[in-house]
Amino acid sequence: MTPPRARALVASDLDRTLVYSEAALGLRVPDAEAPRLLCVEVYEGRPLSYLTESAARLLGALGRAAAFVPVTTRTRAQYGRIRLPGPEPAFAICANGGELLVDGVPDAAWRSRVADRLAARSAPLAEVRAHVRDSADPAWVHKERVADDLFVYLVVDRPRLPGGWVEDLAGWAGERGWTVSLQGRKVYVVPAPLTKSAAVAEVARRTGSDLVLAAGDSLLDADLLLAADRAWRPGHGELAETGWHAPHLTVLSERGVLAGERILREFSAAVRDHARDHA
Fold it and tell me: 7 to each of 1, 47, 173, 226, 261, how far by Cα in Å?
């Protein structure tokens, strides 16, 4: 299927931006006032990720009004567990920009371009993985994983994570063309050339979009937000903790799953304004 050309492209991170685990819901209202939730991910028979029912309606309408592109650090398999409301996205970006899915099928040409870029500008995955293993302590590491043969991440016991360890790892990795991001219980070690923004720029080129809207909460989303025409971040996450800002960025006060709903309201209003201005 050839995706329709679209003037507005909405590129959004998923976890802790649009969808939230039970631990990340952040509901600070009386139970009787809590929003109704819709489960959008099941893993091993258990509900895992949610958005509000209002957010689900907004997302369904947004997918019909613009080119909505999920942009995630999840692997392709992990992304495959997500069942978002609305039309199936024609494009999706996984593995922090390493995988471009077109109608659910990986684009081999894009993956080849990514491989060439990583080989030219960052140290080999095997070298970085060995260092991460050697420097981490099994006492506080629950899992070590390689994502789609592109980057490494650890699942850690965050309260036991030694002070300064992430910073030391980031310094070592930075000298070798890699970046480090701490998100909840996960430590991501990702090649610097592996970016969400590069993949979104490719989708914008293919769809003929002249407006890119984006949202995200982590340092791995910073390049995406900088490259967008307008961007939003919630009141939680790495970017909020560091006070990260940009001239075209809107900082939201909402935290948790209600931030996801607010982001979708902002996206929807921006798409409507853009359509009206170009009618």
Answer: 19, 35, 38, 19, 23
Question: Rounded distance, CA 51 to CA 171, Å?
Answer: 36
Alpha helices (H) in 122-232, listed in sequence order: 125-135, 165-174, 196-207, 222-227
CA neighbor of 87 nearest in space, from 53, 62, 55? 62
Which residue, 133, 122, 130, is CA-closest to 176? 122
Quote the pTM value.
0.92
Name the β-bridge partners of 191.
Answer: 178
The C-alpha angle 201, 181, 43, rounded to 5 degrees, equals 85
Dihedral sign computed on CA atoms, order 99, 100, 106, 112: negative
**Which tens digits make up the pLDDT trace of 170-209?**
999 999 999 999 988 999 999 999 999 999 999 999 999 9
State the DSSP H helix or E strand holding residue 68, giving kind and residue range, or none if neither.
Answer: strand 67-70
What the block records as the tokens of 244 is 């990260």
Give per-residue pLDDT as tens, 47-77: 999 999 999 999 999 999 999 999 999 999 9
Closest CA to 20 of 266, 258, 265, 263: 258
How far apart, in whole angstroms, are the C-alpha atoms of residue 265 and residue 279?
21
Determine contact, residues 206/107, Cβ cutoff 8 Å. Answer: no
For the beta sheet containing 91-94, the strands, ordered from the edge strand earlier in sequence to the opposite edge, are: 91-94, 99-102, 105-106
With contact defined as beta carbons under 8 Å apart, do 202 and 110 qualify?
A: yes
Helical (H) or strand (E) element with 76: helix 76-79
